[in-house]
Amino acid sequence: METYYKALLPYKFEKEKALPAIAVTLAILYASSKLISSSNKKPLKEIPMHRSAYPYVGHLLSLGKLPSKVIAEWHKELGPIIKIKMGAQTWVSIDNPRLAHQLLVINGSKTSSKPESYFSHTYSMGENAISPSQINIYIPSIENQARKLVDRLIETTKKESGVHPFTDLEFFSINTIFAIAFGRKFESVDDPDFKDLTGLIEEGLEYSGIEYDLATYLPIFSIYDFFTGARAKIRSFVKERRNPSFRKFVKEGLQRSDHNLVKYLNKGDFDLSEDDLTVVFNDIVGAGTDTIAVTLSWNIAIMVHHPQVQLKAQEEIDRFIKSNDRLPTINDKEELPYCFSVIKESMRYKPTVPFGLPHLVDKDVQLGEYLIEKGTVIITDMTNLQRNPEFYPDMPESFFPERFMNNLKPMQAAVNGKFEERDHFSFGWGRRICPGVSLAEAEIFAGFVSILSRCSIMPPDEGMPDINGFIHGGLTMMPLPFKAKFVERSDSLIK
Ligand code: HEM
Question: Which atom of ligand 1 is nearest to the CA of 382?
Answer without folding.
Answer: 10
